[in-house]
Amino acid sequence: MIVRLAAAIAGVLFGVGLIVSSMTDPARILGFLDVTRSWNPSLAFVMGGALIAAFPAFFYARRHATTPTGQVLKLPATSPITLRLVAGATIFGVGWGMSGWCPGPSLVAASGGSLPALVFVATMAIGWAVAKKLSG
After folding, report:
1. 96-99 long-range CB contacts below 8 Å, 24 or more apart?
2. What is the pLDDT of residues 113-124, one digit of tens each?
3. Most-buried pick from 1, 60, 109, 129 (CB within 10 A)?
């Protein structure tokens, strides 16, 4: 129960952070990705803040076998770079660059009723379903 509550609180804080930092605005993202015109570095500061916030958790996870609540801490195994990984990352990057949306901010914007975000989330869900069907 505590873990679910903590996850819900973290999700709400993440969504609020995306809204406050304007990362739910595709124009802001596209302004960061387009370095040839009027580049907007604000996404770099958001990423830097995320790294600063995440670092203590990663530091803790490398040195402890359990979470602070006593649950076993299982880190994912390192896996090799595969064609599937590169293809997925490429599709993600191209889609992000074309639309200015990625999953987290699009879900936050869709929950607020943004029609473009709702369309993006729907097409993302279709893409996941197709990928799942194709992968077996």
Report:
1. 96/29, 96/33, 97/30, 97/33, 99/26
2. 999 999 999 999
3. 109
Q: Say which residues have a Cβ less than 8 Å from residue 65's Cβ, sequence separation at least 6.
A: 72, 73
Pairwise pLDDT comparison (117 vs 1), residue with the higher score? 117
- Best CA proximity match to 97, nearest among 29, 39, 37: 29
H/E element holding 110? Answer: helix 103-111
- Dump pLDDT digits (tens) for 55-83: 999 999 989 999 888 889 888 888 899 99
Measured in whole angstroms, how far is the alpha carbon of residue 127 from the centre of its chain? Answer: 16
Q: What are phi and psi of 101, to 5 degrees?
A: -110, 145
Read off the amino acid at residue 102.
C
With left for phi above 0 and alpha for psi between -120 and 50, is residue 100 left, alpha or beta?
A: left
Structural domain boundaries of the chain?
2-134
